[in-house]
């Protein structure tokens, strides 16, 4: 009787390990399909590994959550920079970026609604709109005075996340 429980326990451990390996393999397969098509494949691979899923809808949800968090951080940073800026031109630019990132949050919310309803083209369009708002903020700083804060880095990260959203939404649009 004791031997059968040892065997059962060993079998359970083996099956659990096998399931974990298959999950990791399928997550890597999905990342290897998605990430080369994004703006920043290395960033994509890192972020998708944290998702804990190989399901495209779950990855889209995870990525939209990342986008919402980064856009929220960017709004807060832009507001803080605008409040502290002594240069009126920088103050205006940071205020404009705050509005851009706030608009990005609205686009992310729209993408989430489209994802929930199965409208993957809508997810794609909303993801593109997020990228446009990031570009609008970036355009504020094409001429001096320069932005020396981490706002441009936040914008690039949000752009990279949005790129992942676009690829996932395109894959979701493909027939199974």
From TrEMBL:
All residue ranges annotated as the Pectinesterase inhibitor domain in the record: 26-168
Pfam families hit by this protein: PMEI
GO molecular function (one): pectinesterase inhibitor activity
SMART domains tied to this protein: PMEI (SM00856)
InterPro entries documented for this protein: Invertase/methylesterase_inhib, PCW_Enzyme_Inhibitor, Pectinesterase_inhib_dom, PMEI_plant
Record's signal peptide: 1-27
Entry keyword set: Disulfide bond, Signal
Family indicated by similarity: Belongs to the PMEI family.
Protein name (Swiss-Prot/TrEMBL): Pectinesterase inhibitor-like
Classification lineage: Eukaryota, Viridiplantae, Streptophyta, Embryophyta, Tracheophyta
